[in-house]
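Q: I have two molecules that I believe assemble together. Could you output structure tokens for the complex as a whole instead of separate predictions?
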Amino acid sequence: MSAKREKGESLFAVEGLGIQFGGLKAVDNVSFAVKPGEIVSVIGPNGAGKTTLFNMISGVYHPGYGRVSLNGEDVTGLAPNRLAQRGMSRTFQNLQIFQSMSVLENAISGYHLQERGPVLSDLLGLPSSRRRAETAKAEAFEQLRRVGLADAADREAGSLSYGALKRLEIARALGLKPKILLLDEPAAGCNAVETEEIDHLIAEVAGSAVAILLVEHDMKMVMRISNHIVVLDHGEKIAEGDPASVSRNPAVIAAYLGAEAA
Amino acid sequence: MKLSAKHATLIVLVALVALAPLVFPSNFFYRVGALIFVNSIAVIGVVILTGYAGQVSLGQAGFAGIGGYACALAPAHLGVPPALSVVLGAVISGLLAFLVGRPILRLKGYYLGVATLGFGILVSMVLNNERELTRGPDGIEVADLGLRGLLKDVGLDLSNGQFWYFFCGLCMIVGAWLALNIHNSPTGRSLRALHDSEVAAGTVGIDVARVKLQAFVISAVYASVSGSLLALQNKFITPDVAGFMHSIEMVTMAVLGGANSVLGAIFGAAILTLLPQVLTVFADYEQMVLGLIMIVVMIFLPRGLLPSIARKLRRTGE
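A: Yes, here they are, computed for all two components at once.
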């Protein structure tokens, strides 16, 4: 699975990105790039700055310095909805499901940019409003089928198992037809079977030329599916490369096992 | 064919409005019914803002005041027909909601609640103090809508109470229809999405500030129309319509009945409009009994009366 990194134009790039909280540099001068169809993982010990990095990339935090570019455009510090319009989509470590909605409606929400229209036409229930909703609904249903949740379409989202909710978030994120998909610990809290399902799903999505940026604690999963791995420690990038070289890198081993072990 | 929730709700509402007069003990109840419908219209606006979108406004009565006084002042000073004054009031309310909401709704948290509280008090103060225009706390008379006369000319002779009962009932049904339309529409989905998770709403491309503003403007228009109908019905209006207690009442009605259900909110409006009539026995304790009911409902039926009851029924049915 973990093929050699192919040459080609990168779709997404982070250059010298950093942020400071008070006196603490939570993330400092991190750079890397992701190409279409590639799975790039960001790993590092707890507190290494992975989530902070993710939040800067996805518009939750405004980066202190550095640059994020998507498709050649500078998207540094854009709000999440602007990033969504430009083809970035994400899932959350601690699920952010729309609890009061059905499973299908959660998936439809992913089509917001496609289905939205004039408020007045929605208020009056005009045929154009219903057409927009129907098209999104049909596509969302296909997306549920893709993640294996078609049977649960009409259930309340809150009634799904944890692993199913993780897949539902991915389905919702795919509704945006993203160019790059950010996955924040997609396997966290999942059992072995669920992890494997998500594994396959991620590989399948990458197969459709979507760039994938992954933050994940499950090392086995990271080693199995990544094309490229970026290692953070204390907010800085300490290593980068394919899974085999990263797992042999002394700096990485030291970061994970503690400095004395190196 | 399975009946959609939207159509079921509308059928229930039409049946209630049409059939309730059959059991009215006296003509006085036409008046009570009309009041319930007028309150319901404002509360449906709260359902869209609070129930769907999860935003709290404590100044809805300010918009009701604008709607009410538009019907008093526009015909007298500008020569606008009363029916058009309702529209004028709604437009002004919508614009004001847009201007007030625009800066506020970019912020997260309870800023809207605080800002609208201030807005409501401001409107109330203007209505009380601009005596030359509004005649202050004593109130001002409102022109006749003229529709009852027109109906009489075409052979439909209704008493004043009957006319306002059916007219407000019709307006409420239209208001409910619009709110139900929006619930399952793309706009409604974005409102409910931001209620559940603002962070996730942003990541699917929802412009959170913009969508909140839409909900706020719509709810302001509902409150405005409600105030207009109250003024036209009474042919008189006082600044009380814009008072803080009226704002609280609207939120309470929505929460009591079930803030994310149109039918529930109307149920809440009906109960809180009827109770004071029943509670006259308790006279001085009215506010206390109301408070007690609210506390009990919030503890035992936090979703509101109607959704909680519906849930219980569904559970036992399974």
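A: One point stands out. Chain B has a mean pLDDT of 88.
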